[in-house]
Amino acid sequence: MAARVIKALCIGCGVCTRMCPLGAISVQVKTASVDNALCDECEECIFACPNGAITV
């Protein structure tokens, strides 16, 4: 199961995109989005998110 974004908590800051080693996260319309095909569940984005908006 890939990471998923809790849209109500995401502010689109982009910290998760910079921390993802696989480039699986992008920010579109002020909300992060995870490409499930690229995500390997490393959880770097979870630790990086200042709002706790990403979960696995």
Automatic annotation (TrEMBL):
Q: Which GO terms describe its molecular function?
A: iron-sulfur cluster binding; metal ion binding
Q: Which residues form the 4Fe-4S ferredoxin-type domain?
A: 1-30, 32-56
Name the SUPFAM superfamilies for this protein. 4Fe-4S ferredoxins
Pfam families attached to this UniProt entry:
Fer4_7 (PF12838)
Organism the protein comes from: Desulfallas thermosapovorans DSM 6562
Q: Sorted alphabetically, which InterPro entries does this protein's record hold? A: 4Fe4S_Fe-S-bd, 4Fe4S_Fe_S_CS
Q: What is this protein called?
A: 4Fe-4S dicluster protein
Alphabetized UniProt keyword annotations: Iron, Iron-sulfur, Metal-binding
Give the source's domain of life in one word. Answer: Bacteria
